[in-house]
Amino acid sequence: MSTFGSSFRVTTYGESHCRSVGCIVDGVPPGLPLTEEDIQPQLSRRRPGQSALTTPRNEKDRVQIHSGTEFGYTLGTPVAMMVLNEDQRPHDYSEMDLYPRPSHADFTYLQKYGIKASSGGGRSSARETIGRVAAAGIAEKYLRMTHNTSFTAFVSSVGPIHLPLTQQPDSPEYMEFLSNLTREKVDSFLPVRCPDAEYNEKMGQLIAEYRDKKDSIGGTVTCVIRNVPVGLGEPCFDKLEAKLAHAMMSIPATKGFEIGSGFLGTEIPGSIHNDKFIPHPTDPTSLATATNYSGGIQGGISNGQNIYFKVAFKSPATIGVAQDTTKYNGQPGTLEAKGRHDPCVVPRAVPIVEAMAALVIMDALCLQQSREAARSALPRVAQPMGLKTKEVMDGSERTEEAEKKGQGVVFGDE
Amino acid sequence: MSTFGSSFRVTTYGESHCRSVGCIVDGVPPGLPLTEEDIQPQLSRRRPGQSALTTPRNEKDRVQIHSGTEFGYTLGTPVAMMVLNEDQRPHDYSEMDLYPRPSHADFTYLQKYGIKASSGGGRSSARETIGRVAAAGIAEKYLRMTHNTSFTAFVSSVGPIHLPLTQQPDSPEYMEFLSNLTREKVDSFLPVRCPDAEYNEKMGQLIAEYRDKKDSIGGTVTCVIRNVPVGLGEPCFDKLEAKLAHAMMSIPATKGFEIGSGFLGTEIPGSIHNDKFIPHPTDPTSLATATNYSGGIQGGISNGQNIYFKVAFKSPATIGVAQDTTKYNGQPGTLEAKGRHDPCVVPRAVPIVEAMAALVIMDALCLQQSREAARSALPRVAQPMGLKTKEVMDGSERTEEAEKKGQGVVFGDE
Amino acid sequence: MSTFGSSFRVTTYGESHCRSVGCIVDGVPPGLPLTEEDIQPQLSRRRPGQSALTTPRNEKDRVQIHSGTEFGYTLGTPVAMMVLNEDQRPHDYSEMDLYPRPSHADFTYLQKYGIKASSGGGRSSARETIGRVAAAGIAEKYLRMTHNTSFTAFVSSVGPIHLPLTQQPDSPEYMEFLSNLTREKVDSFLPVRCPDAEYNEKMGQLIAEYRDKKDSIGGTVTCVIRNVPVGLGEPCFDKLEAKLAHAMMSIPATKGFEIGSGFLGTEIPGSIHNDKFIPHPTDPTSLATATNYSGGIQGGISNGQNIYFKVAFKSPATIGVAQDTTKYNGQPGTLEAKGRHDPCVVPRAVPIVEAMAALVIMDALCLQQSREAARSALPRVAQPMGLKTKEVMDGSERTEEAEKKGQGVVFGDE
Amino acid sequence: MSTFGSSFRVTTYGESHCRSVGCIVDGVPPGLPLTEEDIQPQLSRRRPGQSALTTPRNEKDRVQIHSGTEFGYTLGTPVAMMVLNEDQRPHDYSEMDLYPRPSHADFTYLQKYGIKASSGGGRSSARETIGRVAAAGIAEKYLRMTHNTSFTAFVSSVGPIHLPLTQQPDSPEYMEFLSNLTREKVDSFLPVRCPDAEYNEKMGQLIAEYRDKKDSIGGTVTCVIRNVPVGLGEPCFDKLEAKLAHAMMSIPATKGFEIGSGFLGTEIPGSIHNDKFIPHPTDPTSLATATNYSGGIQGGISNGQNIYFKVAFKSPATIGVAQDTTKYNGQPGTLEAKGRHDPCVVPRAVPIVEAMAALVIMDALCLQQSREAARSALPRVAQPMGLKTKEVMDGSERTEEAEKKGQGVVFGDE
C-alpha cells in the first residue's frame, strides 16, 4: 500500500492533478534540527525541467512542513509535508483516452480499482515520488548528522552505453571511484548525471537521438551508500538487500536490481568471489574485507563496507512514435502521444534512488538500535573472538561475577 | 524480521541444530482440503542429497501439521508446521571457529546480535527456508484449486553458461517455452534442473568441475507464474514486482532480481519495448498484450500475462579451497572448510524460488479480493472503455450495453 | 504510533499550533461517492464552541480533501485530508510553563521525546482527533451505503449522575432504547447530548456547577452500532471487542471501556447471562439471540446483534482551581490555569467515539471480506446445522460430486 | 489475527485437540539467559486442575523450546515454543453438537469461517492462551533482569463480592497494598487468589455455591505493574493504556477494562483527580506524583508510577443448568452441558492477565529504546526544567557550540 517502513514509517499520498502530493513521516527522532531548507534540495534535483533532455514542465515543487516541528526542531511526532500541485484540474478527455497506453498503468489501474484518475497516471505517475523524496530528506539529515552516512547515485548506463567501471564488479578502481563520489560531482555532469566526461557526453547524445525520434530509451542508476553502521538488516525476510530491492523496485519504471557483484558475480568462482577478512584499517576491534563483491551486506546484514547496487529503468512508455494498439473497447487503432515527454528517466531517477535507499537504511537503523539497546541492558555473554571453545560455552570457565549473578557464563568483555 | 506477508502471513523459526524448524501460517482460507501430503513434495525437492552434485546430507525432512486443520480441511485458524532436526546437537568447536568464514554471515550475525549459533550459520542457513517452502504449499494448493495458477522455476544459467532463450527477452520462442514448462519437465533434467538436454549437461559438467576443485560457482534461476489474476499488487510501495524482488532477495545467497526484460530491457527503445494491446484471445471483455517485455506487471499490478523473472545466486561461500583470511581476533590465518559442500546452489534453489513467488501472489490475491469485495458492494461508477468523457463521468450518458451487463460502464445511481 | 488499522488504514498528524492537522486514509474502497460534504458534519459536531458548556474557541475546522478522489468518487488511492490551524503561532511562554501540568501529558511527553510542543499539549491535545473524525467520515459513508450500519453515541453519565437505563444491562427497555436512537435525537439534547430530557438537564446543571467552581468533572459515553455484519473480528488477538477497546482507550482522557453487560455483567450468573439463541426474526437461515448481554460479540466475532459499549472519560485536567504542585526543576509552587476550559469533555467526545468505532468496524469488514472472498472460491465443506456427525465429517457420506473433484468431503450445500 | 506486538512480536497457534499449541516469539533480545525452567512456572499456574474450584483436567502442559536458544542463551532469532496436546483426537459428536452453545463462539466461528473445530471451542478455547503465557515468560525474564519490573495480578471480585480496597481508587492503603503485593502472597490464597483471608474465603464459598448449582459466576482481576520505565507508550493510537486494553480484551471471556481510577474516577472532580507532582523520592532529576488516580499513565505514556488496572471476566458460558435455546437448524431444544466445568475463571485468569501485561510493556520498551537511542545520537535540545523561557527557545541564549554547529539552541545538558 502507501506506507513504507516499520519504525521510521512513511505514508505518501497524491495524484498528478489533485490538490497536493505529500507524506506523513512517523517515527522521526525527536530533537533533529529540521526546516524546509533540509528537504527542498533533493526535491529540486528530482523535478523535471532541469535541462533540454528532461520534460520542460517546471513544477516548482516547494515543500511545506505542516507538523511535527517547532522552533526548527522535530518533536518526535509525525512530520506532514506537502507540495501543492500547480495544475489541479482533472484532465480534459480526448481521443487518447480511448486507449490504454501500452506499458502504462492505465489498463491495470482500471482493472484493479474499477476506476482510474483521469490522466497523468494517477498514483503511477512519477509525481508520486515527491512524498518519498521529502521523507528521505529527514532520514538523510539524521543519518548524516549521527553517522556521516551518505547516499550518492549516478547514471551508470543509457541504452547500451555503460560506464565501463560499473561492469567490473569489485575492480579496485571501481571501489575507489565509489568511495570518492559526491553529489556535487555527479551534478557537475548534467544533464545525464554520469560522472565521467566522455560517457556523460555519449549518453547525452544517445538520449538526444531518441528524443529527436520521439522514441525513448532506458538505462541504469548505480548508488553507493557510505558509512553504514555494521549490523543493519533483519533476517530472515527483511534482509537489508531484500528491503533495498523492495524499495528500488517500488520506484516507477524499474525492471531490475542487483547488489554488489550482482548478475555478473554469478560467474565468478567462490574462491575469488568470497570477501576475505582483513584487520579493520581504523577500528582495531573490528574487521574489514579485502574485496567487496558482497556489496557491503553478508547474510542480509550490513558489514560496514560500502553498500552499492544497480537499478534498471525501462525506456519510458510515453512516446510520440505512433503505436498500433487496441482501445479499451477492443477496437484496433493507432496511438500517438502529444507534447514533449521524457526520452530517458535515469537522470531524474538519481535523487529518487538515493531517497529510497535512505528510507531503508534509516528504518533498519531504528530497528537495530532497538535491539542494541535491549541487549546492552543484559550482561555480556561469552563470545568467540579467539575464545569460543566448547569448554567456555559449556561454562567450565565461569567468571566469579557470573557465578554470583547466577547467570551462567558471563564475561566482562569479549 | 521473521514474518512475511500481511493478509496471508508466514512466520518462520529455526536454526540448523535446534529441535525443529517450521512456521506458523496465519490468514489461511478456511475450508481448503489440506494434509501433509500437500506440503511434502516441495520440501523433498528442496532437500539436499538428491544427486551427486548437491550435498550428501539426507535430512529426510518430514513435515508435521500441528494445528489449523481437522478432518483434512483448514479451519481458517493458524496452521503450524514443523520439521524435526535430525541433528539437534550444537556444534563441536574446532580451529575453524576462530574464523569468521569469508562471505558468510558469521561476522555480521555476531556483530548484530552479540552472539551467534554455534554452527551451520543459524538463521542464515538454507535450512531456514524449510518453513517458507512448507507455508507455500498451502498457498500453492489454494491458488491451483481456485485459479489454476502455477509456479515453475528452472536453472537458467550456471557460471557463464546461459540457456540462450533466457537471454532473449520476449522472443516468441522464449515466451512459448515459458508457457509450456512444467515441474515434471524441469525435474526430468536432474541434477541441474535446466530444462534443455544440451545445456543441462554442460551446466552439470561445469558444476562437477568446480566440485572437483573444491571451489564453487553461481548461477541464475528463472521462474514463470501462469494464470495470475489481473489486478494483483498494491501501489505505491507494494507493487507486485517490488514484493517479488523483496521475496527473492530474502532467499540466502541471492544477488539480483529482474522482472520481464530486466536489465537487457533497458537497452530496448520504448517503441519496441512497449507491450501493445490486443484483444484478449479468450476473454472478449478484456485485453491482452502482443508482447510481454513487462513480464506480466504494469504499474506494479498484474495484467494477466505470464509473470516471469530471474534471480541471481552467488557462488556458495563454503569452499574447500584454502583461503587466506583473518581470525575474529585480528590475526591472519588460512581457512580450509572440511567435508563436502554444495558447489552450486541453483538446482536446490528452484523450489525455494517457487515458494517465495507463491507467498507473494497469495498475499496479493487476498488483498485484492478484499478490495474487490468492498468495491462490488458499491454501485458501479461510469468508466472509460471508449466512453470516458467528462459528461459521462458526470453520469449524464448511460449506455445500453452497460444497462444490459449491469457491469462495465454503468451509471445509474449510487 | 500514528497509524490505526491494517486494511483500512488511517495515519494522522498535527499538533495544536502547527500549520494543519489531518490524515491520510489508505485502503479506501474505490468508487465511493465522496466529497467534503460527507466529512464536515462530524467535524462540526466535534469542534468546541457549540454551547456555553464547552470551550468558547471557534476553530471553524473546514476540511479539505487533497487527494484520492476525482469527479466526486474515490479512486482507491490514499485520501489525504486536512484542516488548517487558525492559530499557527507557537505559544508565548509564561510562568505556567515552569510547571508540568498535573495529569497532563507535559511531563511524560518531555520524558519520552526529550522535547515537547510549546503548548496545547501537542499531540495529546484533543485537536489531534480531527484526523480521526475526518477519516471515519469515509468509513461511515461506506458502511451506511453498503450495510446500513449506523454509529450512535450519547452521554450516559456526568459525574455521579447516570442515565438509569444504561445501568441495567440488557433490560428490554434499554435494548429498545439503543435500537431506536439517532444522532438527530442525541443532538436535540444539547448541550450535554444525553437523550433524556430530565437527565440532560441534571447533567447540564452539574457541568455548570463545576464550570463555575473552575473545576471539572468526568463522565461516560455509550455507543451503539447497528446493522453490523456477522463475522467481524479477528481472533485471537484482534477480537472485535479488543480492537474497540484499543480504539476507545486511544482517545485522550479515557479511563475505561466495557462491552455489553460490562463490569456489572460479572455479577450475573451464567444461567441468566448466557444469550440463548432464537430463530432470526428476518433471516430464516440464521439465528439471533434472545438477550444481548454479550453486546453483539461472541468469541471476539460480531454475531449480528447490536454492539454497544461504554467509555469512561476522566475529569479534564486543565482547571482554574489553584493546584499545589512541583515545577520541572523540583521546586514547589502553585499552578492556576488561566482562561476558560472545558469543564467536562463527554458532550464533545460523542462524535469521536462514533468515529473510532467506525474505523474499527470498517477495518474488520475489509479483513473479513477478504476471507469470505477466499473461502467462496473453494468448494463448500460439509458443516453442522443438524448434519454434523462424526460419520459425515469422516467422509463416509461423500457426495458424488466431491468424489469426482477428488476434494474429499464436499457437499453441494450445507 | 494471531500476532501481537510490533518489535517484540508473538504469534500463537493451536486448538484444543490438534497436535500442540504454542508460539513463535520474534524480536527477542539476544544474550538473555533462557531455559524451559523460566517458562514453565506461569504455565503451571495457568493450567486447570489446581484445586476443587477449577476444572479437574490435568493437562500437564510441559513447554518445549524448539529454537532461538543455544547453551542457555537466546540468539536473537525467533524462539518457538510448544506444549503438546495430550488429547489430540477430534471430538466425538453427540446431541450437543446440534446446538450452538449460548454465549460461546460456536455460532460466530461457523459464520465467520464457514467451518469450525469439532469441539473445545477451537481457537476460542482458553487453551489458546498457553502460547501467550509462554511468550510472556521471555518478556518477564528480560524486564525483571534489566528493570526489576514485576507483574502481579489477583482476584479483586467474584460476583458481587469485591475486595473493598479495590473500589477505593487511590486510597493510600490501596496504593500501599499494590506496592507490596507478590505472586507468592497471591498464591498463598488459593484457590481464589484474592490476597485477603476474609474475602478469599467468601469468594471461594460463592464459587462453590455456583459450582454446586451447575451454574457459573464472573469476577474481576486487578493487576499492578511495578518499576515501569518512564516514557513507554506510543501516541496517538498506541497509547499505553490502549495497548493494555487491547491486550486484556483479547483474553477469552473479558468484558471490561479500566485503568487507574477507571469508571469510578469519572465521578471525582479534576481538582482532586489531578495527580499533583512532587519531587521524586529517589531520583533528584525527576518527579513523582502525590496521588496516582492516573494509574501510572499520562497522555498515553508511562510516568514511572505503578500501573494498575482491572479486567472484567464474565460468568463462564459452559454450565450444567439446562438452557432453552435453538439448534443450528432453527429448531428449539434444551441444552445441558455434561461433565464438570469451571464455575468461575478469574483464579486461572491471573497469570494470563500478567502475561498479556508483560507482552505490552516489553513491546513498548523496545519501541521507546529505539527512540531513545535515535535521540541520544543527536545533540541535546534546550528544554524546560526551569529553563524554558521564550528567550531560550528563540535562541537568544545560544551556546557557542551550537553556533558552531549551526544547529540553533543546543545545550550540553538540560
- Cα-based radius of gyration of chain A, to the nearest Å: 24 Å
Largest sheet of chain A: 5 strands, antiparallel
Count of discrete alpha- or pi-helical segments spanning 4 or more residues of chain A? 12
How many structurally independent domains of chain A? Answer: 2
Helix content of chain A: 25-40%
CATH architecture assignment of the largest domain in chain A? 4-Layer Sandwich
What is the helix/strand order of chain A? EEEHEEEEHHEEHHHEHEHHEEEEEEEHHH
SS elements, strand count of chain A: 18
CATH class of the largest domain in chain A: Alpha Beta
Instruction: State the end-to-end distance of chain A.
Output: 44 Å
**Structural class of the secondary structure composition of chain A?**
alpha+beta
Assembly status: homotetramer
The CATH superfamily of the largest domain in chain A turns out to be: Chorismate synthase AroC
Shape of chain A: globular
Using a beta-carbon cutoff below 8 angstroms, give the protein chain pair with the largest interface and the number of residues from each chain. Answer: A-B, 130 and 130 residues
Strand content of chain A: 15-25%
Unreliable sequence segments of chain A: 384-414
Overall pLDDT score of chain A = 88
The main sheet of chain A orders its strands as: 1-2-3-7-4
CATH topology of the largest domain in chain A: Chorismate synthase, AroC fold
Pathway (chains A, B, C, D): Metabolic intermediate biosynthesis; chorismate biosynthesis; chorismate from D-erythrose 4-phosphate and phosphoenolpyruvate: step 7/7
Subunit structure (chains A, B, C, D): Homotetramer.
Family (chains A, B, C, D): Belongs to the chorismate synthase family.
InterPro entries (chains A, B, C, D): Chorismate_synth, Chorismate_synth_AroC_sf, Chorismate_synthase_CS
